[in-house]
Amino acid sequence: MAGSRKNEPNRIPFEQGWLLLPVRLAICFLIFVALRRSPEFVADAPTTTNVPKLSTVQTLLPQSASIGEVRGDGLFEVRNADGKVLGLVGTTLPGTRRIVGYRGVSHILLAFDQDGVVTGVKLLDSEDTPEHVAAVRESATFFQQFEGWQLGHADSIRHVDAVSGATLTSLAIAESISVRLGDSKPSLRFPDQLTEDDLKLVLPETSGLQLYDVSAYEALVQDQQGRLAGRLIRTGPLSDQITGYQGPSEAVILLDAEGRTSQIALRRTYDNLPYTDYLNEEPYFWKVFLNKDWADVSQIDLVNEQVEGVSGATMTSMAMAKTLLAASEKYQTLREEDAAAKESKKPGIRWTASDRGTVAVLAMALVIGLTPLRGYRSFAFLWKVMLIVSFGLTTGNLLSLALLFGWSAGGVAWSMAPGLVAVIMFSLVTPPLTRRNLYCSHVCPHGAAQQLVRGLLPRPQGRYRRVVNRLRWFPGAFLVVAVAATVCGIQWNAAAWEPFDAYIWRVAPVASIAIAVVSLLVSTFEPMAYCRYGCGTGRLLDYLRRHGHSNRLTSADVIAFLLMVFCWVWVWWRP
After folding, report:
1. 281 and 204 in one domain?
2. Which residues contact 184 (CB under 8 A, 6 or more apart)?
3. Calculated CA dihedral for residues 386, 391, 393, 395, nearest 10 degrees
């Protein structure tokens, strides 16, 4: 029995290999969170009050000669040389900043007729992968689908056909447009959008603060680091029907980051001047409405609170008090309706044949990787061919650093790409749980292609071996550089430095195709050349893999820790 035990393979106790692994997982998690928090990557978005360029507007409205002031709904009137209104234009950002495609958000210009019906759409800019963006731009029919959709009318929004090869990018554009069309309409009595002057009414010192419109009645207040400092609300679009002595009045309310009323001031009025100025000169009048959750203002009993009108402007001030209560109630109603509308319009998880096929491949890969099935050569050959043809060239759901870092920084497209989400989960979870890098060995089409061509030519020896062995550091170095470049907001196309986009053949960049072809040629005499000497994605998955030496501190752990520290230093104290 003792002799038979000697011949048995060494078994790794379950506990062994788990000493440093949680630390490695935590370091990687913190790096991904830093990418998400990076203020460089999520740079200041343009606001709806940024006037579109006339030359750009002319591509949708050729007779345009001038662009007017912004309206309460964030749209601009466009006029011809004779001063006649041709239509309206508006953009999707910043309200759609959280809608991410394959790698980032897109900024779209919309043209409307005077009834708010879409007449034209133009993609202004996109943080998505250049090849996917180019495919969308070149589509002759994609943007035509949105013509006829109407501002504020959810029933006009229809199913969209995505651009083949750029599904995530085109679906994200469609979602951005539908969200933008859901904006509320402005008050005709108080049409002016919130500006910095309004912020100064309630906050004299506004240095470094910026306003980002999110609706006709609300704007976010952000500091120089992009952090939420509060919200600015105007009552006009919420309640403009309550009249004082001669007409309605509008207030502006500053909420702190927790949603409590910080300051209130009169903004506009149709009542008598100069008596209305008394409201801003008598701070005690606003006292009962301050330091309360904005949602609770509607519940204030003016009689029990002994709210009295301001001397000299009694009717105006009491009307203003009622306006605040009505505006608070309407605000909550709109928020609830908006949430319900988004929930009802939410498409859920968009399962396609490609996504279902992807999940089936992952399930089969798990079976192959954990059973003796992987030892049958004929079956393994057929599996590799299937991965290249049916999984790689058909679904295109390949893991890459471009995808990992893009989704870490910009958000995960859960509903639009469940297949890709499943690939990411499978790839990151199986190495620490199964002690195997199942994605690289049994899922990756490029890995399968390299396995099929290995050994076709003899492997060189001598000095060649010494040179090649020194390249083992490259995947880790590429991974570190990719993380640092992403967190610092450096504009680079990560996909062009990897071969994986070559399998998305409809939009494949030349650089990806070149890397794929060259790495396959080299693999004929240097087995698995790209996996061993070029793949940063594989290096990340190997770093997360549990094995018998996982309890040993390595240089990779030190580098990963220093990289994590760099990312968070950049996020907090960037130059």
Report:
1. yes
2. 73, 152, 215, 216, 217, 237, 334
3. 150
Indicate the pTM of the whole model: 0.61
For residues 123 and 134, what is the distance between their CA atoms, to the nearest angstrom? 10
Number of domains observed in the structure of the chain: 3
Rounded to an integer, what is the distance from CA 414 to the centroid of its chain? 11
Each residue's pLDDT tens digit in the chain (575 positions)? 344 444 444 444 444 456 788 899 999 999 988 887 764 444 334 444 467 888 888 889 889 888 887 776 678 888 988 888 888 898 887 777 767 777 778 889 999 988 888 999 999 888 787 888 888 888 878 999 998 888 876 656 677 788 877 777 887 888 788 878 875 545 656 778 888 889 988 888 877 888 888 777 888 898 877 788 899 999 988 887 787 766 788 899 999 988 999 999 888 887 766 655 667 677 778 888 999 999 899 998 888 877 776 665 677 778 888 899 999 998 888 777 666 655 555 556 677 788 889 999 999 999 999 998 888 889 999 999 999 998 888 888 888 888 887 777 666 666 677 888 899 999 999 999 998 999 999 999 999 999 999 989 988 887 888 888 888 899 999 999 989 988 887 777 777 889 988 888 777 778 889 999 999 999 999 999 999 999 999 999 999 998 777 778 889 999 999 999 999 998 887 65
179, 99 Cβ separation under 8 angstroms:
yes
**Within 13 Å of residue 210, how many CA atoms lie on the same side as its CB?**
15
48 is a domain residue:
no
Is there a single domain that holds both residue 216 and residue 110? no
Rounded-to-integer distance, Cα 324 and Cα 309, Å: 14
Are residues 248 and 313 both part of a single domain?
Answer: yes
3-state secondary structure of 520: helix
Burial of 150 (0-12, 13-18, 19+ CB in 10 A): middle
Shared domain for 24 and 83, answered yes or no, is no
Burial zone of 298 (CB within 10 Å; 0-12 exposed, 13-18 middle, 19+ buried): middle
Instruction: Examine the fold and report which residue of 150, 181, 212 is the final residue of a domain before the chain moves on.
Output: 181
> Residue 109 belongs to what H/E stretch?
strand 106-112
| Last residue of one domain, picked from the residues 181, 215, 238 | 181
Question: C-alpha angle with apex 454: 450 to 457, nearest 5 degrees?
Answer: 135
User: How far is residue 47's CA from residue 91's CA, in Å, rounded to a whole number?
Assistant: 8
Q: Three-class SS of residue 26?
A: helix
Q: Are residues 220 and 357 in the same domain?
A: no
Do 369 and 518 fall within a single domain?
Answer: yes
The residue segments making up the domain with residue 172 are 54-181
Domain identity same for 320 and 391: no
Name the pairing type of β-strands 76-79 and 118-126.
unpaired
Compute the distance between CA of residue 99 and CA of residue 171 in angstroms, rounded to an integer: 10
What is the C-alpha to C-alpha distance for residues 348 and 147, in angstroms, rounded to an integer? 24
Residue 237 and residue 216 in contact, taking contact as beta carbons nearer than 8 Å: yes
Gyration radius of the chain's alpha carbons = 30
In terms of Cβ atoms closer than 10 Å to its own Cβ (0-12, 13-18, 19+), residue 352 is middle
Task: Give dist(CA 266, CA 341) in Å, integer.
Answer: 32
Residue 395: both structure tokens together: 């679904």
Residue 380 and residue 311 share a domain = no
Q: Report the 3 state secondary structure along 423-463.
A: HHHHHHHHHHHHCCCHHHHHCCHHHHHHHHHCCCCCCCCCH
